[in-house]
Amino acid sequence: MTTAVETRRSRGPDSLGRRLRGSLPAYAFLAPWLVGLVGLTLGPMLLSLYYSFSDYSLLSPPEWAGLANYERMLTDPRFAAALRVTFLYVALSVPLELVFALLVAVVLNRGLRALPLYRAVYYLPSLLGGSVAVAILWRQIFGNGGLVAQLLSAVGVEVPGLVSSPDTALLTLVVLRVWQFGAPMVIFLAGLRQIPDDVLEAAQLDGAGVVQRFFRVTLPLLTPIVFFNLVLQIIGAFQAFTPAFIVSGGTGGPSDSTLFYTLYLYQRAFGNFEMGYAAAMAWVLLLIIAVFTALNFALRRFWVFGDEAPEGGR
Amino acid sequence: MLDLDRRALLKMGLGAGALAALAGCGGGSGGGSGGTSARVAWYGGDPVHTAMDAALAAFTAANAGVDLSTERAPYDDYWDKLATQTAGGTGPDVFRMSMAYFTEYAQRGALRDLSGAAISTDGFDEDVATSGQLDDGLFGIGQSSITHAAFVNPAPLQALGAQAPASGWTWDDFATFSRDYAAAAGSGQYGSDDAGGNIQIFEVFARQHGSEVFGPEGLAVGQDVIEEWFAFWEALRRDGAAPPPDVTVEAAGFDASTLATGLAPVQFGWVQQITFYQPLLPDQPLEIVAVPSGPDGTLAGQFVKALDFWCVSEGTGSPELSEQLVDFLLNDETAVKEIGVTLGVPPSSRSRELLGADPSSPEGKTIAFIEEVADQVGPSPEAWPQGYGELQSTFTRVNEDIAFGRSDPAAGAAFMGDEATRVLGS
Predicted ipTM? Predict the structure, then answer.
């Protein structure tokens, strides 16, 4: 591994100059990425941090406003609504999506003949999820007189448009996310492939059934992958924007029931020219995501295989 | 291995950070281009794009050595782009501007004062010629005359033997019409779209109650009038005479409107929109009538005004060319003919005659309606205030909350008042 190589080379009394000269080519090769990092990521991030403390309309130069933007979040009812919607969305969609992705991965891993085909087919929704076509599709399925309404109507249950009622609109977006289970599924599949057959065989010889083998052998060995997917999906779900934007036509409606955090941020920034407030919101979201990610890492020792027993499995 | 380490965490953190970076992007350099080239930008649908391309081609043909480039977008997307470009000093030289954002841009110094410009407004409807006037300058030239309208589809009315409404009908007449029609046409049919969340139709209602919606001090209309309006529509929805909120939510845009999908025979809007609705109902010629009147039966609540402008960027590098182009688009015979009514009704009677539109075509009906109501409508309100765009969507949301039972007319009106104070006060 790279770390091993680095430690070996840096052993011994190198002068600073020689060390610099030695790494010059490395930095030269890194330069394009560094330019991108500084110019496109770090620079704008620092600017955005500055804007978050200012009153900035995008059309006229920013004016220092201290903590005003952050204070405003405390009393902004739509900010509270956006937080509520986003947390609910993360809490519902991430577990459902992961369970579903794992289920499909387990089924696909049972040695289907056309595996690459199925893998591609199930991955497809992940690529389509952000497209405008999905907005139309979702209305056809969950809208007034849509597919779901017709099916329910056939069994005598009359429902309003699910995508256009504030009580159910968010649920249709959760379904949309679960439907895009392709990315975590592919990662689960790769993880399942790494589980050694001999362990499973040993369990089988000891008399473990299918269910036991899954819960006692496969799942524990898969926890690092579950952890990886969990961290990624939580971050992704907090940042979700496109589904709500296209399905609600950019409003976050009906009645703010799909007002994702990022959508509200976007409305403030580009709809109302409140770049300062939007920048402050972006930093608060970054903080929220950082806290959740740190929590995830802190908690992993309690359930992720290999962290509590370094010798295990691999 | 798929194990995670600090480096992976850092990468993820940066991914999340990119979002924070989003709000910080912008910048860029450069202003207008040299003296013989200009960028022109507008919003609209396909008919607008075709018309504008033809008009600009005529300008280039008549002015050798001039180089025009164009940018076009649907209404909603247009503003994101224009705001970003303007912030970076790379805005277009000549661009279409809506009344909803006009004051915002003008007061922030993004628009050029056209007071002394060689742009002729001779023969323009008076309100249009002065629509772009603010206290400290003339920041845009109205490109069309428009007024509020109710579009009526007579076909389903005839099928039921119902009387088609006519200009001069009152809100009471409208309510009776809607209830009768919904009852006769059966479940899933409504008298009109739900205009309860449309602050622009509410503007007519407010004026009928003796007050503009906005005044110099913020909200001018009384909260009781707002409450009465929300309650009026809530009653219609309860009786099934106006569509329930989940239908309204799905009826956004011209294509999905209750008029186009055959759920309601009446649709409120701006007069030139008949040219957008008519192609969606090719076999059912639409008619235009006035928005319902107050008890006096006059059209004083409505007004004829320019709500779209041609503006020139303050930082343009080709001010003379830009002004010449605006003049051309408004007054040149070829341009007027190419543009037709795609931007609204041309703002002078000379231009309207020039079009010679067939009176039975949607274009002809639009022009005829403007000319019919021009001397019956009330005086124009002042330019909409900065923050109008936000209050417009708040109004829609409040109506939606009431319709979904999450608020009531009194609370909604009070909330509207608070929001107006917050938005207009800042």
Answer: 0.78
